[in-house]
Amino acid sequence: MKQIIVLLMAIGPMFGSSQPCRVGTIDGLTRANGFNQLILGQEIKQVSHHKLSYLEQSPGFDADSCIFYQYNEDDVQQISKDAKIKFIAVRAYKYNIVNIYVIFNRSDGFEVLNDFLARYGQFTSRPDAYADVFEWDSSSVHLSLKYQLDINFGIAVYTCKALDEQIKAKSKQRLLQQKTLAEGN
């Protein structure tokens, strides 16, 4: 009996320190790691091919060597309780999901904001106090919500920070190489 008590005292703190993620905190964003069935960092081939189509009907890479896909899923029609989704796009880098773009009607912006506040807690920054732009930053995910008056739609952009850093480093390296080549001529 004494050994059991000693064992419980030894491992008890481990269970106490691993508290479950609370709803309405930034940890919820890290845990979700994406939107619905789309997971940041996931290989694009893990998403059912019938749910994806190339954006603008032709596969091609952007300046950062990324490919854009449209996500076609009839089951995913809402971003929050009352806000309907107009369109979902996915951006992949080296065939891994780096961004998820969720587009909705601008009139639903406040509803989406309230839903995100309930899910992820208070936004971590608001770059412009005069515009409806809100950002949440967790250790691995960045979420930006925009529904400004000068456009007819709102957008939530989920970003995988690790892949985004790889893209930025590659872009910086490419610019440095271009500068070196230009100086050599």
Q: Can you describe what's shown?
A:
With 185 residues, the chain is of the alpha+beta class. It has a single domain (20-184), classed as 3-Layer(aba) Sandwich (Protein Transport Mog1p, Chain A). The protein is 32% helix and 28% strand. The chain contains four helices and nine strands. Strands 3-4-5-6-9-8-7 form a seven-stranded antiparallel β-sheet, sandwiched between helices. Strands 1-2 form a two-stranded antiparallel sheet. The termini are far apart. Mean pLDDT is 82; it is low at 1-20.
Based on the model shown, name its key terms.
single chain; 185 residues; alpha+beta; Protein Transport Mog1p, Chain A; seven-stranded antiparallel β-sheet; two-stranded antiparallel ribbon; 28% strand
Topology:
Layout: H1 2-17, H2 26-32, E1 34-35, E2 38-39, E3 52-54, E4 66-71, E5 85-93, E6 96-105, H3 109-120, E7 133-137, E8 141-146, E9 153-160, H4 161-184
Antiparallel strand pairs: 1-2, 3-4, 4-5, 5-6, 6-9, 7-8, 8-9
Rough outline? globular
The biggest beta sheet reads:
7 strands, antiparallel
The CATH topology: Protein Transport Mog1p, Chain A
What is the CATH level 1 assignment? Alpha Beta
Radius of gyration: 21 Å
Give the strand order of the largest sheet, numbering strands 1, 2, ... along the chain. 3-4-5-6-9-8-7
Query: In CATH terms, what is the architecture?
Result: 3-Layer(aba) Sandwich
Report helical residue fraction. Answer: 25-40%
Query: What's the tally of helices?
Result: 4
Structural class: alpha+beta
Mean model confidence by pLDDT: 82
β content, as a range?
25-35%
Q: Could you list the spans in which at least 5 consecutive residues all have pLDDT below 50?
A: 1-20
Number of domains: 1
The strand count comes to: 9
Element-level helix/strand string: HHEEEEEEHEEEH
Our measurement of the CA-to-CA distance between the termini, rounded to an integer number of angstroms, reads 82 Å
